[in-house]
Every structure is written in structure tokens, then in C-alpha cells.
């Protein structure tokens, strides 16, 4: 049997809610999402637009870096990869900073966003995504720790370097793979990913 629980994680039947700071209030009518930065074709979607895109149902395990894992969470949403293909990232785009309503951010590699199970999720267990879960729409990145799954997602900004997000600036790992226990950043972030190394003087 395939191992389901990453090292150092404890299973919970509960599904805790983890939000740092205020919970933003964003109605479906007010919600809009953008892909911007290093793309040929910047893209903007409303909630209605999102529902017209091809829909994907996914059941995935959810791993929080604070050591709880919840198995078999059922989501529905739109593949980020499909939207990125339409936005056409420029060749120099390697990373993204994800922005949420309320100011939360998290960084990802473009290749992590292009995985087929990365969604803009609007439905959880068959119901509209509740506000406290990031409704109307959150990012789902199930192969990385859950802090990457930005709630109340507002934009993906493509960049030619890694710009650290909210928790990453506090010392969380720049990538966050639960199977490698990438919880905290020990040592420097790989230099080739950072702006000050990628820009020639
Ligand atoms: N905008 C925003 N997204 C966020 C967070 C947050 O504080 N703000 N917390 C992250 C963390 S640490 C986790 S574990 C998951 C929790 O998702 P949940 O509250 O649906 O369990 O959301 C992530 N996304
Ligand atoms: Mo978390």
C-alpha cells in the first residue's frame, strides 16, 4: 500500500481552520482573479467566468506544517495549469508570488503551479467553499504543505526570481514538500532563485 502520511505528521479526523489575522470578506460578485507579471497574455476572471471553465473534481490529502494531516478532502475547481497555458508565461518566468485578499502571500515555483492537481477551488465536499476556508475561491496545492494553498486567492504574479511569501519570510521553507519535511528554511534559499543573484550588475 502506498504510504499516505508524510513523516512527522499526525492524522486528524477534524479539519482545523488556520488563518493568520483577519478573515477577509469577499462575496462571489466582488471576487476577481488575475494572472499577471511575466505573461504574454494577462488574464482576469470573475467568479462567473471561473464557473464557465472546465471543472475538475479532486480528492486529496491535506498536510499542515503544524503536523496535522487530514485525508480525503474533496474539492472542485479549475486547473491553474489551464489558465496559465492561456496566459502564456514568458520563457524567463520561473516562480510566482500568490496574492490573497487581506494581504497574505505565498511563493511557488512555476513548475509546482503547473501540476495537474493544482486548482482554483470553489467547492469543498460538494458545497460552496465556506468563507473561513477561503471562499469564494482558494488555491489548492495538495503536494506541498497547506500554507501554500492560499485562501481568498486574488492573483498569481509570475516572476523571473523567487520572492518569498508571508510565512516563507518568517523562516518557513521556500518550497515546503511534506515528504521531505521541508518545514523551516535551514541555510540560505538557493541563490540562483533569488533576484540579487539572477540580476547581472
Ligand atoms: N489567505 C490565507 N491563506 C492561508 C492561510 C492564511 O492565514 N491566510 N493559512 C494557510 C495555512 S498555514 C493552512 S494550514 C491552510 C489551512 O486551510 P484551512 O483553514 O482550510 O484548514 O491555509 C493556508 N492558506
Ligand atoms: Mo498550516
Please provide a brief summary of the model.
By secondary structure, the chain is of the alpha+beta class. Helices cover about 15% and strands about 30% of the residues.
Describe this structure in words.
With 201 residues, the protein is an alpha+beta fold. The chain has one domain (26-180): Oxidoreductase, molybdopterin-binding domain (Sulfite Oxidase, Chain A, domain 2, Alpha-Beta Complex), CATH 3.90.420.10. 13% of the residues lie in helices and 30% in strands. The chain contains five helices and eleven strands, in the order βββαββαββαββββαα. The strands form two sheets. Strands 1, 4, 5, 8, 9 and 10 form a six-stranded mixed sheet that branches. The protein has a five-stranded mixed sheet with strand order 3-2-11-6-7. The model is unreliable at 196-201 (pLDDT under 50). Residues 22-167 form the Oxidoreductase molybdopterin-binding domain.
Estimated share of beta-strand residues: 25-35%
Task: State the order of secondary-structure elements, H for helix, E for strand.
Answer: EEEHEEHEEHEEEEHH
Bound ligands? the ligand Nc1nc2c(c(=O)[nH]1)N[C@H]1C(S)=C(S)[C@@H](COP(=O)(O)O)O[C@H]1N2, molybdenum atom
Which CATH top level class fits? Answer: Alpha Beta
Would you identify the regions where 5 or more consecutive residues have pLDDT less than 50? 196-201
- From the helix content, strand content and strand pairing, which structural class follows? alpha+beta
Based on the coordinates given, report the CATH architecture: Alpha-Beta Complex
Protein name: Sulfite oxidase-like oxidoreductase
Domain Oxidoreductase molybdopterin-binding: 22-167
Organism: Thermus oshimai JL-2
Amino acid at each position: 500500500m502506498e504510504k499516505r502520511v508524510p513523516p512527522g505528521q499526525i492524522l486528524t479526523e477534524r479539519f482545523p481552520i488556520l488563518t493568520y489575522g483577519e478573515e477577509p470578506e469577499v462575496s462571489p460578485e466582488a471576487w476577481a482573479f488575475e494572472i499577471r507579471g511575466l505573461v504574454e497574455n494577462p488574464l482576469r476572471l470573475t467568479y462567473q467566468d471561473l464557473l464557465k471553465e472546465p471543472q475538475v473534481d479532486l480528492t486529496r490529502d491535506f498536510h499542515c506544517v503544524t503536523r496535522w494531516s487530514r485525508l480525503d478532502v474533496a474539492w472542485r475547481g479549475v486547473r491553474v495549469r489551464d489558465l496559465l497555458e492561456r496566459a502564456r508565461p514568458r520563457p524567463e518566468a520561473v516562480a510566482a508570488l500568490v496574492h490573497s485578499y487581506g494581504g497574505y502571500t505565498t511563493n511557488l515555483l512555476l513548475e509546482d503551479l503547473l501540476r495537474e492537481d493544482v486548482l482554483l477551488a470553489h467547492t469543498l465536499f460538494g458545497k460552496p467553499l465556506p468563507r473561513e476556508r477561503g471562499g469564494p475561491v482558494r488555491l489548492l496545492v495538495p503536494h506541498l504543505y497547506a500554507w501554500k494553498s492560499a485562501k481568498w486567492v486574488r492573483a498569481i504574479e509570475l516572476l523571473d526570481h523567487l520572492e518569498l511569501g508571508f510565512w516563507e519570510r518568517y523562516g518557513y521553507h521556500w518550497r515546503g514538500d511534506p515528504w521531505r519535511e521541508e518545514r523551516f528554511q535551514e541555510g540560505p534559499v538557493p541563490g540562483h532563485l533569488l533576484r540579487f543573484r539572477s540580476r547581472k550588475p
